[in-house]
Amino acid sequence: MKARLHLQQFCDVSKVTPELQPLVSWVPGLDRDRQPTQVAVYAAGTIFEGPIALQLCRTGQAAPADDECAIALGKTEQELAVLRVEYEMNNLGINSKGDRDLYRAGVIVGYNADLTYKPGPKWNEYHAAKAKLEGEEL
């Protein structure tokens, strides 16, 4: 049974089992004091095998990478897509209903460091429609 990670995930190397050690990658990052260091991650696209594969799929962190996992999971493509988007929003800290709606619609892709919106592909379209509606209400 196999699953493929959707997004890069940080890895606590103190808890990595011997079978997972080969999957760990090291990338540039920052330590707790904001100093440059190497951090352990599981890269997006990493393939996990065994029971952990099914667990990662059930939480939206991964997609089935073989028929065995897909059958054991028992979810439709649409259900898997919903799980993936929910996981993405949780990962990005998008918690309010309104912001989740904007994310799902492609208006935002997350938040900047100052917590303003990061515009998504539908940002301009959304604001043009909103301005038009506001103009009609006057």
Topology:
Elements: E1 2-5, E2 9-10, E3 25-30, E4 36-42, E5 47-49, H1 51-58, E6 62-64, H2 67-73, H3 77-92, H4 97-104, E7 108-111, E8 117-119, H5 123-137
Antiparallel strand pairs: 1-5, 1-6, 2-4, 3-4, 7-8
Write a structural description.
The protein is α+β, with helices and mostly antiparallel strands and 138 residues long. The chain is built from five helices and eight strands; from the N terminus they run βββββαβαααββα. The strands form three sheets. Strands 5-1-6 form a three-stranded antiparallel sheet. It is flat. It starts with a strand and ends with a helix.
Short key terms for the protein model shown above:
alpha+beta; three-stranded antiparallel β-sheet; 5 helices; flat
Across the major sheet, the strand order is 5-1-6
Helicity range of the residues? Answer: 25-40%
Task: State Rg.
Answer: 19 Å
Beta-strand share of residues: 15-25%
State the total count of DSSP E strands. 8
Derived from helix and strand composition plus strand pairing, the structural class reads: alpha+beta
Span from first to last CA?
Answer: 59 Å
Average pLDDT confidence is: 93
Shape: flat
Q: What characterizes the major β-sheet?
A: 3 strands, antiparallel
Number of helices: 5
Query: Helix and strand string, N-terminal first?
Result: EEEEEHEHHHEEH
